[in-house]
Design brief:
- This protein has 235 residues and is an alpha+beta fold.
- Helix content is 22%, strand content 19%.
- The strands form two sheets. It has a four-stranded antiparallel beta sheet with strand order 1-2-3-4. Strands 5-6 form a two-stranded antiparallel ribbon.
Length: 235
């Protein structure tokens, strides 16, 4: 287990209300998940306000079908942490695409019951990462981009685009309506039909005209024409 120097972390987190608790949790996590790095950056909220916040950015190891994959994530810690849950995103590389589902929306934001039911001290960063590893092992949040497609650049118009996870590029967050002790609204966990769909709505092609069977002798559409149309529509 790597030894982490807490001094620089305490300086970076000087504006955090519960600095020592936050430093302790970060130290515990990055000593065991060496690919996660603490980064201070500007975070942009939905109302346009910004705040310098700490994020843990990097990868977590996820076992899927007998192989271990490094899933890129970014975990933002509010300055009221640990009394408010982190704001978590999957951070796809240019070779990856987001796989939307019950726990991931099209912008890569992560939704978990663990976050929705967050309560200090029962909830912490290490436990959150453990839950992510289990959930992602059952439902991977990213998949390899086909070589014929352009590099990742989707979802620029809504929510946090991929560049928002890079230094100097702020991210955007969605919050629920319930205020928590730190003054931040609660972590919104979509339920029921509000989950993002794993696939878009089906698009049915327009039924082409049937030209193989002509009208009946009296000028009306004959039974053969109607039958042919129905057969074609059901194919």
């Amino acid at each position: 287990m790597a030894v982490v120097n807490e001094g620089p972390l305490k300086k970076m987190l000087k504006q955090y209300k519960y600095r020592d608790l936050t430093v302790r949790e970060i130290t515990n996590v990055i000593s065991q998940y060496k690919d996660l790095k603490p980064v201070m950056d500007a975070y942009v909220f939905n109302d346009g306000s910004t705040r310098d916040l700490m994020s843990l950015t990097g990868t977590v190891p996820v076992s899927y079908r007998g192989n271990v994959y490094n899933i890129p994530v970014c975990l933002w810690l509010l300055d009221t942490y640990p009394y408010n849950p982190p704001i978590c995103f999957v951070k796809p590389t240019s070779a990856m695409m987001i796989k939307t589902g019950k726990h991931i929306d099209a912008n890569g934001k992560i939704y978990l019951p663990y976050l929705h039911e967050w309560k200090h001290p029962q909830s912490d960063l290490y436990g959150l990462i453990q839950v992510m590893i289990v959930v992602f092992g059952e439902e991977p949040p990213v998949f390899s981009r086909p070589t014929s497609q352009a590099p990742y650049q989707a979802f620029q118009a809504a929510g946090p685009p991929n560049p928002s996870y890079m230094p100097g590029m702020p991210a955007v967050s969605s919050y629920g309506p319930n205020p928590n002790p730190g003054g931040y609204p609660g972590y919104q966990y979509p339920g029921g039909n509000s989950y993002p769909a794993t696939a878009g709505p089906a698009h049915y092609p327009t039924q082409p005209p049937v030209s193989t069977v002509g009208p009946s002798r009296d000028g009306t559409i004959g039974e053969d024409t109607i039958r042919a149309s129905l057969i074609s529509a059901c194919k």
